[in-house]
Amino acid sequence: MLGLANPLGLLTLASVAVLIVLTQLRRRSHVSTVSSLILWKQLPERPLERQRFRPDLLFVLRLLLLLALVGGYALPWIGGPGGDAASGLAIVLDVSASMQVREAAGSRFALARRRLDELVGGLPSAAPVMIVAAADRPRVALRWTTDRGRITERLAALEPLDTPTDLAPAVELALGEAARRPGAGVAVLTDLPPSAGGLAPARLAGVDWIAIGRRDDNLAITDLAVDAPPFAEPADVHVEVEVRNFGSASRATTLEATLDGSPWTRQALGLAAHAGRRVSLGAPPASGLLRVRIAGNDALPVDDEAVAWVPSQPPLDVLLVTESDALGAAFRTLVATVPRGHLEVVNHAGLAERAGLESVDGVVTVFDHQVPASIDGAGSVLYLAPPPGNPVCPGARMVEDASVVDWEPDDPVLQGFGSLAAVEVARATQLLLPEWGTAAVTAASRRAAFPFLVVGERAGRRRACLGAELPVQPSSSDAMPLVLLTLGTLRWLAEPAAETPITLATGVPVRAAGAALRSADGVRASGDPPVVLAERAGIHRLEGAGGADRLVLASLLSADESDVGRDGGGERPATAAPASAPSTSGRRDLSWWFYVAAAALLALEWAVWGLVG
To answer: Do residue 112 and residue 33 come from a single domain?
Structure first.
């Protein structure tokens, strides 16, 4: 059987016509040397006669060379479907946190690795193997290879992470890779049943599913919340912990909390089977690093501890730059509600008379309807209703009747807030997203949705752009939601940026304000502003630009991942062969013969051209 792997390559045969045209044009004109043009000028002009095409040896060689190149480009083959290539196996290995559960014969991951060794050992030596690691996202741990030593080495290096599980993308990746190899199968090794994989049963028909694990006696911290309203007194800060028992028997445990390594509180808890309890720890005695831990020898240790940050309550020193006396009065009313609050109001001319913004370093500067060209020496800055067209807080236009439609509840600026759906303004600047910031709050008008509050860092200083102006009567009930949002923004701006850790759940990417950070063991950081993703629970330190390190506090706070009880392990073999691409095994590629012929014809054409030229 003869075929073409690239039949569209035959379209290049049109180049034969180009060769004929070029040959004809070359023959119509040639250069001759004569002693004088007098006689040539006396000859009458004759119309150019149509010449008959007569191929010569050079043309034939060039034509054969061109046909050989076209033939090689079409990728011809001879033979037919056969079975001389061994079938391969694409393996999906669950490396999520629940694979750390300790069973009687070892951890679930160790059991899965042993079973995987058996699978690979049962394959023919020529059968390729691919490994996809599945946790919060799929990762290709090993591309197709027949090197058994390399497979063993890669398996030994794999360890379970501290993240939740998302199997579906990894299984889809393995199915897609197996479909490109005739006869290749797919095997999934996990502690989840096929129904929890998130895939349709039809997609799993060609998958060997190997489920591991039975133990269910696990206690877990599934939530740790530090409620710190903006500029609250220390007594108003509140800490709550949620502890759940995922086992089929009641359990007793002890909940311990420390602040910066010093003991804070200790409580005894009794939990019924499959029950949870929300525990109030009250007001922490100080700010700093909060660790909460439950005691007990359960199935999964990684969810027995959670870490968080109790923020300090710095004084609020505000320098308001405005031309509006009404806004100055409104800010005085606002700052008067804040403990240890201080406000200074100047207009643009008064700001120019100062010795420079270096003298107010550490003060939150608020610019009303203006964006100065340079504030390099300033501390934290808030721009209220910045005019459209400026380079720092760019905006498209002014819009009417805007309402908040979306917000990032985990953003540090919105810490302690509930819903922001009640925030409405009569006029707002339709902000655009600058390269240094992220949209913490999104609003919409009748025209479009747009960033309403943009936060970030620039040149090591915190910046915020709020697309609305503060109401002149901030104490009214209609203005209160916007006032609270402004207070939360001022609180975030007043915090010492370098001392505030990034708090997140493992496996959940968080965009953090600040300059680019370098990844560390267990934490990935990329971009500017950086996106941080923790794969290991605990306390991490990331190196930032200019030596400004940032702490990252990561905890596994996933009820689904901590619910490690299973109906039982077992193997469910595939009920159908996976879909695969048309087989190409048994075919012999002929394209290289055409390229060898083309090279020989090229050498011969050069030799003939040298003789006749």
So the answer is: no
Q: What are the structure tokens assigned to 260, written together?
A: 């910066």
Q: 129-167, pLDDT tens digit by residue?
A: 999 999 999 999 999 999 999 999 999 999 999 999 999
What does the angle CA 179 – CA 185 – CA 189 come to, to the nearest 5 degrees? 120
User: Domain check: are 467 and 331 in the same one?
Assistant: yes
CB 257 within 8 A of CB 290: yes
Higher pLDDT, 554 or 194: 554
> How far apart are the C-alpha atoms of 338 and 487, rounded to whole Å?
9
Q: What's the token pair of residue 474? A: 């901030």
Question: Within a domain: residue 604?
Answer: no
Please give the Cα distance from 47 to 24 (Å, whole number): 17
How is residue 106 written in tokens?
Answer: 């070892």
Q: Are residues 481 and 507 in the same domain?
A: no
Q: Domain containing 204 — which CATH number?
A: 3.40.50.410
- Count of domains forming the chain: 5
552 CB-near residues (< 8 Å, 6+ apart): 501, 502, 504, 523, 532, 534, 539, 540, 541, 542
Give this prediction's pTM: 0.71
Say how far apart CA 110 and CA 168 lie, in whole Å: 22
CATH number at residue 274: 2.60.40.10
Residues 6+ apart with CB under 8 A from 425: 401, 402, 403, 443, 468, 469, 482
Q: What is the mean pLDDT of residues 106-121?
A: 93
Shared domain for 437 and 321, answered yes or no, is: yes
What letters, b where the CB count within 10 A reaches 16 and e where it falls short, cover 307-326?
bbbbbebeebbbbbbbebee
Summarised one tens digit per residue, pLDDT across range 319-356 is 999 999 988 998 988 888 888 889 999 988 877 776 55
Give me the amino acid identity at 452.
F
- Residue 26 located in a structural domain: yes
Residue 327 in contact with residue 302, Cβ under 8 Å? Answer: no
